[in-house]
Every structure is written in C-alpha cells, then in structure tokens.
From TrEMBL:
One of its GO terms (biological process) is DNA recombination. The keyword ATP-binding applies. It holds the Pfam family RecA_C. This is Uncharacterized protein. PANTHER family: DNA REPAIR PROTEIN RECA HOMOLOG 3, MITOCHONDRIAL-RELATED, RECA. One of its GO terms (molecular function) is ATP binding.
Amino acid sequence: MTSLIEFLQGRVVEIYGPEASGKTTLALHVIAEAQKLGEYCVFVDAEHALDSSLAEAIGVNTETLLLSQPDCGEQALSLVDTIIRSGSVGVVVVDSVAALVPQSELDGEMGDAHMAVQARLMSQALRKLSHSLSQSQTVLIFINQVRSKIATFGGFGGPKDVTCGGNALKFYASVRLNIKRIGLVKKAEETIGSRVQIKVVKNKLSPPFKTIEFDLEFGKGICQASEIIDLALKHKILTKSGGFYTYEDKKYHGRDAMKAFINNNEDAREEMKLKIKEKLAAGHTEKEKVADAIVTATDSEPTEVIASDSTDDEVAAVEA
C-alpha cells in the first residue's frame, strides 16, 4: 500500500458502496500506511461518526491525525482546498459526500425542495480542488454512499444504484473503487467479520475492472493474515490439500491454525510477504515482456477502432 500512496499523489480517489461494506475502514488503512511514511493526514468527518477506537485498532495514530467535523458542505470543501494548498498533508479523507449538506439546505425548512444543490456544490468545488491537487502531492479520498436508482422508461439493464453528489466526482476521480460485502467470516457459530470485494470501476493510471477480495474483521480492520494466505496459495508459496496447509514442510490443520501461525511468527510473516512481493514483481515484468512482444508483432497491422457510447456504470451493470 506504501507504493500505492505514492502512485496516487495529486489524484482524487472515490470509494463507494452500500452501508457497512468497509469504506471508512479501507480509508483508515490508507491513513495508517501514510502515517508510517511520516505523512500528516486529515480526516474530514462530515458524518460526525468516526470511531477513534477502531482507527487506533487499525493502526492510525489518532494523536497526529487532524480531525475536522465541519458544519456544512461549503465549510468542509473550503477546508480541504486550504489544506491541499498548504502542501503539508499527505492524505485527506472526506467521509462522506452524502453528508456534505449545503448551507442553503441547513438554513431552509425540513420539507423544502433543494434541486441539485449538492451536485452544483461538488461540481464547483472539484474544479478548484483539481487545480490545487495538480500542484501538490496530496491524495484526496472521497467516501461516497449509494442510493437506489428509480427505474424509468427505457432504463432496463441500466445500473440499479447511483452515487450521491451528482456526476462531477465520477469525472474528476482518477480511481473509483466499488466495495461491497459478499459473505461473512465465521468462527464456530460466531460472525467475526465480512468477506469484502473491491472492483476498480475506473482507473486512469492502469487497466480498470480488476477485483480483489479480502477478510474484514469487526473492530480490527483488514485481516493481513488471510490476505497473506490467499496470495501465498495463488503464487504456490503455500500448498493446500483438503483442510491442511503446508509451508516449508510443516503442516497446519485448518485456516485458523495457519492464520495463528502467521500472526504469532513475525519472521515467517515477513518472509512470506517478501516472497509474495518477489512473485508479484516477477509476474509484472513477464507481463511487460509479453505486451512488448504483442505490440512489436502488431505494429504493421491496421487497427480497427470501435466507438462505444457506454459508460463505466453501464458496463458494470451489464457484467453484473
């Protein structure tokens, strides 16, 4: 994640998904990794719901974390712009876009109609923020909620959910991550976490539509041991036969036993992480060689360009 933070400097990232899917937890993990690099981080808590104990359990240093709980959307986005312009902050997280209430809505009555006020606010703010980000090394992360899209005539097959705050964020975001819960993690009869899937629905920095799955433990965050096991199995560092896992000629009965070994043995954990990184680096180099060979072989061949009017949301809906 350290190299990922450096990769996203000066960019806007949107993390969106349904309730209790792990959006804030993922953002807090990014903050924790940035703090390890010595970066100052800001958490704009527009929802006024940050759990400091969860943040500390994930690894966030809450003493150095700058926390803001703004009164309205204009105040929050103005603060974000000022912080980015200062050039002294590595990561800014806004939680969430849906909670950025415009001042005009706060001043009005409960039943008043406020058509597209929040969308206009986000559009105006992102024009300024994108300019500020281009001159800084800050990673700006917006957490967003989803709403059910009301079906209209001719809308069959379109996306069922829509994000809050209009379409501006979809255009300005360099990376959009769709996170959702796909299962539960249980220990005996007790549910201890969720199985979470993240899909990259937009990526200006590398190919999109990649997915990843991991375990999210309640009160602890992303389970690193489970992530190591999944990647080690994928790259043949670990082997599995029935309910037994084998690592360096030693067998462990069950996933829980393997997780306990990884959690309790720092040297083995770091060794496995190093082996995984080496495998990933080797795989990336091999892919580059194959891509270069394909480009060389097809340089002389005419390329047919096919226009597409579909959006990233429509592509996601068709795939679903």
